[in-house]
Sequence to fold (252 residues):
Amino acid sequence: MGRTIRSELLKLLTTRTLAWLLIASVLTSAGIAAVVAVGTSEADFQPTEGVRSVLAQGGLAAGIMALLLGIVASGGEYRHGTIAPTLLVTPARGRVVLAQMIVCGLAGFALGAAAAAATALVGLPLLEARGIELRLSAAQLAAIFLGGIAFAGLSGALGSALGSLLANQVLAVGLALLVLFVLEPLLSGVIGGYQRYSLTGVRTAIIGGSPQMAGDPEEGLPAFWLAVMLWIGYTAALTIAAGAVARRREIA
Fold:
């Protein structure tokens, strides 16, 4: 298994996708943090949620980039035909799916760390320049940044599992965007309590977002550890399905 992971890691490091998404993650995180820090009124910063919204931008942006990285890295294997030589070396398809998921998760952690650093370097000085009091302890600040890094890693793994399952990066990206920005908001509006365990709700809990659901103050977010376990569970389900499908998929 270790040899398969090293092989997948080498493939990922020798492509431009990781570098471009790393740059995009840093620039996007810094840009969004700057816009929110400068454009938000001081009144909105009085509760700690206002400050959290600035500092959580790095985790959010890195998570999206890591999700795309996972999809492109695994789904792109089928589009470009590189999956064939991979399976010649490692015929155990389930092992390949798992190795790709692990590697994309590690790459996601790297994206998250870079985005967290960019957010801190841009967001904290801007808040200080505006005289905004953080009202967050060092432990709370660390939890937000570490949560963002964790979310990016988990997103990379989820994206890889989805890309391996569908074997089509365009379809996988489209499906991910449809679920996150169309289906989940729709279901959250018609099913009470759904948002708490949705990808959006779990994501918000991991990256250190508001402790209460927007528009639904009676339903709090799941605890951090529970949110992480839920996301891992969703990823594990996709990975198992991807492994089962991969064993029956014909490779040209």
